[in-house]
Write a structure and sequence with these properties.
The complex is a heterodimer of chains A (109) and B (191). By secondary structure, chain A is of the alpha+beta class. Chain A contains 2 helices and 6 strands; from the N terminus they run βββαβββα. In chain A, strands 3-4-5-6 form a 4-stranded antiparallel sheet, covered by helices on one side. A two-stranded antiparallel ribbon of chain A has the order 1-2. Chain B is an alpha+beta fold. Chain B is 21% helix and 34% strand. Chain B has 4 helices and 11 strands, in the order βββαβββαββαβββα. In chain B, the strands form 2 sheets. In chain B, strands 1-2-8-11-10-9 form a 6-stranded antiparallel sheet, with helices on one face. In chain B, strands 4-5-6-3-7 form a 5-stranded antiparallel sheet, covered by helices on one side. The longest helix of chain B has 11 residues. The radius of gyration of chain B is 17 Å and the shape is globular. Classes of the chains: A alpha+beta (109), B alpha+beta (191).
C-alpha cells in the first residue's frame, strides 16, 4: 500500500484517502497541432517498471491535486510536489538519481 | 415554519466500549477564500469569536469555532439559531473580497464519541494514526470513515466530535455503534 504525503495540507495518509489521477506532466498541444501530437496527448502513456510520475488527489482530505513520484515495483514514494508545475523539481530528481541511478522517464532523467 | 430536527433524533448508544451519541443541531458555515487575507481573517474571527486555526487545527469553544478544512476553506461553527445573523455579518464583511460563505448546517450531522475506548473506536474506522502522541486535542482531520468522508477533532482527551454528511448519518451511527460494541476492545493504545 502506498503512503503519500499531501504537499498541500501536510497530511500523511495511506492510499485509500487519495484518488489516482493518472500520468503526470502530459503535454497538450494547442490549435494547429498535428494529429500525431494530439494522438500522443490523448492515448500514449508511459508504463514503466521503476520510476513513475503520477497525479493524485487528496479526495477525502483537502480535495487538492498534487504530483507524486514513486517506484512501480517497490511502491517506494520518492516524494510529492505541487500540482502547479510542468516538471518535477530539481531536488526531487536528484533524490531519485541517488536511489535509482540512470533513471529516465519521458524527457526527464 | 417547520421544526428543525437532527438526522437521527438524537440517537445514542451507551452500552459499548465508548459512548456514541448524535449531537444537537449545530450551525455550520462553509467559508472559502484566501485564508491569509486580513479581511477574510477578520470576517472569520469576528463571526466565530475564536482565533484563526493553524493548518490542520481547529479552535473550538463550546458551540463556536473555526476548523481548518483546506488551504482555502474554513468551517465556521456557531449556534444553530445564530446562523442567519452570522452569515449576514460575514457577507457584509466580505462584500469586497473574492470569497464564499454558505450555510451548510442542514447538510451535516454531528456525532460525539466519548469514553476510554473512543480512540480505539475511531482507529477502527479511519486510516489515521490516532496514537495519543500523534493526534491530540486541538487537531482537526478530514478523512474517510469506512466508506464515507468525515471530519473530526478532539475537544478534550477521549472525546471525538465527528462531522459527516446528513444523508450518511445513519450509516455513520451504525458504523460507530458496531465499532464500539461491548467486548470489542482490542487494547491497542493500552500500556
Amino acid at each position: 500500500m502506498l503512503i503519500l504525503s499531501c504537499p498541500v495540507c501536510g497530511v500523511t495518509a495511506e492510499e485509500t484517502e487519495f484518488q489516482g489521477g493518472g500520468e503526470a506532466h502530459l503535454k497538450r498541444f494547442g490549435p494547429g497541432a498535428s494529429e500525431d501530437d494530439f494522438e500522443g496527448y490523448l492515448f500514449m502513456r508511459e508504463n514503466p517498471r521503476g520510476v513513475h510520475f503520477e497525479r493524485w488527489r487528496h479526495a477525502y482530505g483537502c480535495g487538492k491535486w498534487f504530483h507524486a513520484a514513486r517506484c512501480t515495483t517497490t511502491l517506494e514514494v520518492f516524494g510529492t510536489y505541487s500540482a502547479q508545475t510542468t516538471e518535477p523539481p530539481k531536488d526531487l530528481r536528484d533524490k531519485i538519481s541517488e536511489k535509482r541511478p540512470n533513471w529516465a522517464w519521458r524527457e526527464f532523467e | 415554519m417547520s421544526e428543525p430536527v437532527t438526522a437521527l433524533g438524537g440517537a445514542s448508544s451507551t452500552d459499548g466500549i465508548a459512548m456514541v451519541s448524535e449531537c444537537a443541531l449545530q450551525g455550520m458555515i462553509t467559508l472559502r477564500g484566501d485564508l491569509s487575507a486580513s479581511a477574510f481573517k477578520k470576517a472569520a474571527t469576528s463571526a466565530s469569536g475564536v482565533a484563526m486555526p493553524e493548518q490542520g487545527m481547529a479552535t473550538v469553544e463550546e458551540d463556536r469555532g473555526l476548523c481548518w478544512m483546506s488551504p482555502d476553506e474554513l468551517l465556521l461553527l456557531c449556534p444553530y439559531d445564530a446562523v442567519g445573523g452570522t452569515l449576514a455579518n460575514v457577507h457584509k464583511t466580505l462584500a469586497k473580497s473574492h470569497a464564499l460563505a454558505v450555510n451548510v448546517s442542514d447538510a451535516r450531522a454531528m456525532f460525539r464519541v466519548s469514553g476510554a475506548g473512543a480512540r480505539e473506536v475511531m482507529t477502527k474506522l479511519c486510516p489515521v494514526d490516532l496514537a495519543p502522541d500523534q493526534f491530540t486535542p486541538g487537531m482537526f482531520r478530514r478523512t474517510r470513515m469506512a466508506q464515507v468522508p468525515a471530519a473530526f477533532w478532539m475537544p478534550e482527551e477521549d472525546v471525538f466530535q465527528i462531522v459527516c454528511f446528513r444523508s450518511q448519518a445513519q450509516y455513520v451511527f451504525d458504523l460507530l455503534t458496531v465499532a464500539a460494541q461491548p467486548g470489542s476492545s482490542v487494547g491497542v493504545y493500552q500500556e
